Amino acid sequence: MGAPLPAYRAYRTRAKIIVDVPELMASDRRFAPLVGIAREAGWTTLIAIPLMVRGESVGVLTAFYSHGKEPSRSDVTFLEAMADHGALAVRTARLLNEAKDKAILEERNRLARDLHDAVSQLLFSMGLRTRALQLAVERPSPDRTAAILPGLKEMQSIIESAVDEMRSLIFQLRPVDLRGNDLASALQRHVEAVQEREAGVYLEMIVSGDLPALTPDIEEQVYR
Questions:
Q1: Strand 56-66 to 43-53 pairing
Q2: Nearest Cα residue to 88 out of 117, 111, 61
Q3: Most buried pick, 35, 54, 193, 202, via CB within 10 A?
Q4: In whole numbers, what is the pLDDT of the chain averaged over residues?
Q5: What angle do CA 102, 106, 109 make, to 5 degrees?
């Protein structure tokens, strides 16, 4: 109902808040839906401690104490230590997400460089070879076939190289779909896809015992 929650005040002010629950409930009619709950639970004291990460509030640890168990100074110190642990967990999670995002960005940049360095050069070579073939066709020659055929063969080779390079990059972006399979079948399909992509490479998969079903977590590990 929009009542001034102590937890929000602790979050906003970045300061520890300790309040008497019955007095809090009586201070604003918007607390009315909570009065019965607080009375049944026997809450007498509420403590809200902000979780701080480099001066920023990232959450609040809230504790309720019932009648006869009012918090001592050591209880408050313990809650502050717990809040510090919670803030550390939030910071760690943030750092992991940042590292993951950075790794994804670096992988995209690497693929972009590979695309530029490999495929772009092959396409440029195709353009040059096409122009050379055009000139050969336009140039009077008693045997145009003999003049053009080597160029066509070289063009075919360049095109095949470009297609292989594109397949390799696409495979890195998203390997063969492994969903809907058990782990052994999924790994076998992955092995076959790699072998098909890498000419001259022979791969053999040997499975001993039963492997678990392919869950989303395992599937992501297989992709990686």
A1: antiparallel
A2: 61
A3: 193
A4: 78
A5: 140
The sign of the dihedral angle between the CA atoms of 30, 7, 20, 68 is positive
Rounded to an integer, what distance in angstroms lies between the CA atom of residue 25 and that of residue 34?
Answer: 8
Are residues 34 and 25 in contact, defined by beta-carbon separation less than 8 angstroms? yes
**Residue linked to tokens 């520890």:** 16
Q: Which two tokens stand for residue 201?
A: 């490479």
DSSP letter assigned to residue 116: I
Token digits of residue 208: 């001993």
Q: How many CB atoms lie within 10 A of CB 1?
A: 9
Q: What is the spatial distance between Cα 3 and Cα 19, in angstroms, rounded to a whole number?
A: 14
| Sheet with strand 43-53: strands edge to edge | 17-20, 43-53, 56-66
Note the pTM of the prediction, 2 decimals: 0.47
Hey, which residues does 57 pair with through a beta bridge?
Answer: 52
Highest mean pLDDT, choosing among 28-42, 109-123, 187-201: 28-42
Question: Which pair of tokens denotes residue 2?
Answer: 């929009």
Distance in angstroms (rounded) separating the CA atoms of residues 61 and 79: 8
**DSSP one-letter code for 211:** P
- Rounded-to-integer distance, Cα 212 and Cα 173, Å: 26
Render 141-158 in DSSP notation, one character per residue.
-TTHHHHHHHHHHHHHHH
Tens digits of per-residue pLDDT, 118-156?
Answer: 666 777 777 777 777 777 776 666 666 676 777 777 777
